TrEMBL record:
This is HCP-like protein. SUPFAM superfamilies: HCP-like. The lineage of its organism: Eukaryota, Fungi, Fungi incertae sedis, Mucoromycota, Glomeromycotina. It holds the Pfam family Sel1. InterPro entries: Sel1-like, Sel1_AlgK, TPR-like_helical_dom_sf. SMART domains: SEL1. Belongs to the sel-1 family. Gene3D superfamilies: Tetratricopeptide repeat domain.
Length: 199
């Protein structure tokens, strides 16, 4: 129950005639009460969120270990089934809850691999790219791969090299691995290869 200051009722005021910077507001003041909102308990309200949190713990670790996308997919799907959920329900939850970069990146991976949905490489690339522009390392690695292999976008080894280089600047082992592939297999402009890299 809110406690309110006891105020004497105001006389009827003609606001148009009585307005001045010092005029008294007809509203009572100090009448704030606590909001009647209930508490938020995510475990009780959204059980899928726990499964998503488990996936988000393992996904970056698998990427960090330079695990192939197929192995990452197998691991994620296995984890989903171990938690008695379906990949399609996880995909739907991620589609409805894109409020963090990690959720968007995981949704992008689901779209890239067709986990619980139809493959949509272009949409996956877009999700990765938006997160990568905000300097999120995992997304930068995914964007570099997309450019290197031409997944969801045109194949551009020069852009792949630049994105892997951005990853290296954040001390990413996967970035070093990607740069190595560019040096060995890609036809990258010599100007890019010879440019100094800040390690």
């Amino acid at each position: 129950m809110c406690e309110r200051n006891t105020l004497t009722p105001l006389r009827s005021l003609d606001i148009a005639s009585s307005y001045s910077p010092r005029s008294i507001s007809p509203r009572p003041y100090n009448t704030r009460c606590p909001s009647p909102l209930h508490r938020y308990y995510p475990e009780e309200e959204d059980p899928i969120r726990n499964v998503i949190d488990n996936l988000l713990e393992s996904f970056p670790i698998l990427q960090l270990k330079c695990t192939t996308n197929i192995k990452i997919e197998e691991s994620l799907v296995s984890s989903i089934y171990d938690n008695h959920e379906q990949p399609s329900s996880i995909y739907c939850w991620l589609s409805d809850n894109q409020n963090t970069l990690l959720y968007r990146i995981l949704l992008g991976f689901f779209l890239l691999m067709g986990i619980g949905c139809e493959k949509d490489e272009k949409r996956a690339f877009t999700l990765f790219f938006l997160a990568a522009r905000k300097d999120y390392l995992l997304a930068q690695e995914m964007v570099a791969d997309c450019y290197f292999y031409g997944i969801g976008t045109h194949k551009d080894e020069n852009l792949a090299f630049q994105w892997y280089n951005k990853c290296v600047k954040q001390e990413s082992a996967y970035g070093y691995y990607g740069l190595g592939r560019c040096y060995e297999y890609a036809n990258v402009d010599m100007g890019l290869k010879d440019s100094p890299i800040d390690y």
